[in-house]
Specification:
The chain has 214 residues and is of the alpha/beta class. It has a single domain, classed as P-loop containing nucleotide triphosphate hydrolases (Rossmann fold, 3-Layer(aba) Sandwich). The protein is built from 10 helices and 7 strands. A 7-stranded parallel sheet has the order 3-2-4-1-5-6-7, with helices on both faces. Strand 6, helix 6 and strand 7 form a beta-alpha-beta unit. It is globular. The C terminus is likely disordered. Bound molecules: adenosine-5'-triphosphate and magnesium ion. Adenosine-5'-triphosphate binds next to helix 1 and helix 7. Magnesium ion (MG) binds next to helix 1.
């Protein structure tokens, strides 16, 4: 089982929106997928409760013993576990990153957001977790986006597809949907599928150490 943890110390970076979009697209691609909400704000859980479809499954377990919980899911046949996290440093986050196959770091293209990336990276690197950046909520064709791409590329891998600021994301979320379910042929849906393709490639690359409990 692959464990994908979305992490950013910056509030509103796009963690919850990105991870649920990718998780739904993973489920739509035919993989057994589960979601775990470790944010006390509970945004992911509220969204899931608005869904008609019960898949991907929302799971709960004690994150203090993350490995045991993840192992049980793997035994039950789950192939991908997507984990949402709060915008704050908690001891459980370090533990989860220690068991993650890949950390996804969504970043908005703004100087304030770029400044805050260091804190998140310190935590991820301390856990020894592979990571990729994903630019999110970017306005199309702006210099800010170009500057952010160059700044982030110095620190690590960056998904080649940018997730732009599109109303499809909050609109789909009203009914507990993701953009690939709401309007499958939109630019937003295409971007999510491309980011997922990149994430899958990264997971396979690190396959040796990428199993839960590495
Ligand atoms: N690509 C996008 N286009 C338009 N709006 C977006 C996009 N991604 C996220 N949003 C909106 O931006 C806001 C913040 O996004 P989200 O809740 O996913 O961030 P977060 O990092 O999970 O926040 P928190 O740190 O509070 O958990 C939400 O209102 C969401 O609907
Ligand atoms: Mg969130």
């Amino acid at each position: 089982m692959y464990v994908v943890v979305v992490a950013s110390q910056k509030g509103g970076a796009g963690k919850t929106s990105l991870m649920r979009s990718l998780a739904v697209a993973t489920h739509q691609a035919g993989h057994a997928t589960a979601l775990l909400d470790t944010d006390p704000q509970g945004s992911l859980t509220s969204w899931w409760n608005r869904r008609e479809d019960q898949q991907p499954a929302l799971v709960r377990f004690d994150v203090a013993d993350f490995k045991a919980g993840a192992d049980r899911l793997a035994e039950a046949g789950i192939q991908y576990l997507f984990v949402d996290t709060p915008p704050s440093v908690r001891p459980e986050l370090r533990t989860m990153l220690g068991h993650a196959s890949l950390a996804l770091v969504p970043v908005r293209p703004s100087p304030d957001d770029l400044d805050a990336v260091g804190d998140t990276l310190a935590l991820i690197e301390d856990a020894g977790c592979p990571f990729v950046f994903v630019l999110t909520q970017a306005k199309p064709r702006t210099r800010l986006q170009m500057q952010a791409v160059m700044a982030l590329a110095k620190h690590g891998k960056l998904a080649p597809t940018v997730v732009h600021d599109r109303t499809d994301f909050p609109t789909a979320a009203i009914t507990g949907k993701a953009v690939t379910e709401f309007e499958p042929e939109t630019a937003a849906a295409r971007e999510v599928k491309e980011v997922l393709e990149y994430v899958m490639t990264q997971l396979r690359k690190d396959a040796g150490k990428a199993k839960a409990g590495r």
